[in-house]
């Protein structure tokens, strides 16, 4: 079963705007991770936020985690055309052992 | 530094033919290894994972099998492909300590399989 659910499914913005993607999950987690996938390529890890953290930054990326609502958001500021990709959240939960459970992803298109 | 290789990059196979996809990792030891399948425009479905040589966990009943003959080699196989086996196959690894994964997964470039 799918642990993470992203929304929106697709997002189209202009270059320079901010992009926000959300992820909801169902069980208690150890950490939540965000990945990026360019079309036809493998996934690339972006950022990991642990269950005891509320916010994390990496360059133009900002991730928040609300364990009470079982949700996370990924904010990309000052978007660029090169940010066009699919973005996935993945949850690491004790009950899932050594596995990550991925959501269906958000397709982001940044128009120049 | 660690690298992960997958081959072939693309594959077109007839229904009923066998399959062998290979994944190798360099620059680390005792990794946990994973095979995922991704349908077009969809998320990742975990197929198999391995915490050590010869140790394979299957996540979904299917036409595929996996083997780990060496520490850093993970193979996905089928004796007879079905149309539904078409998809994008991704191999991934993660650091592990005594079999337990931690932190992020590192993905290979993927294999695009089309079964006709």
Overall description:
The complex is a heterodimer of chains A (112) and B (116). Chain A has 112 residues and is an all-beta fold. Helices cover 0% and strands 55% of the residues of chain A. In chain A, the strands form two sheets. In chain A, strands 2, 4, 5, 9, 10 and 11 form a six-stranded mixed β-sheet that branches. A five-stranded antiparallel β-sheet of chain A has the order 1-3-8-7-6, with no helix packed on it. In chain A, a hairpin with a 4-residue loop joins strand 7 and strand 8 (71-76). The relative contact order of chain A is 0.35. Chain B has 116 residues and is mainly β. Chain B is 0% helix and 59% strand. In chain B, the strands form three sheets. In chain B, strands 2, 4, 5, 6, 9, 12 and 13 form a seven-stranded mixed β-sheet that branches. In chain B, strands 1-3-8-7 form a four-stranded antiparallel β-sheet, with no helix packed on it. A two-stranded antiparallel sheet of chain B has the order 10-11. Chain B is globular, with a radius of gyration of 14 Å. The interface between A and B is medium-sized, with 22 and 28 residues.
